# Entry
Amino acid sequence: TLEEQRSVTSLKIIGEVNNTDMRFINTYLRSLEVLDLSEAVLKDASTLNPLKSTAINRTLRHVTLGSYMSGDAIADLSVNISYCLALETLTLTTNHACIANSSLYDTSGNKTGSVTGSPYLSRLIIAEGVTELKISTDPSRAIYCVFPTVEFPSTLEKVDYYLFGFY
# Structure
């Protein structure tokens, strides 16, 4: 019901999630603070808020990300966190992950001052079981240093040297 949609503060999704699902979440679950996608596969969904500036998400605080599928193949995870103003914590649960937040930082790593980003973003957690963090050779896919705290797991074996925007 509409009333139930308004009262959901925590949601775990298992299965495939696409941009239509993310639009529904941002449109109707307006009290959602915790989104767990650790057992979900993001199917061609590359942004937490595909509605962008038409419906800025002001409630989502903690997100756990799972796998990303492009076409029929598991691909490197690249999720845009723009337009989620209250976002504080991201947790990555899979290898080969990167985060895009172009509204906070441009591809050279300079702060742009845009209000569409996540000004409260303070923690990146790499979950136990992740063994490798890498990105493509495209420097625009790096995780630029927007996280005051990064927690690495004991299972981590390899981190690409340019992952955090340093070359």
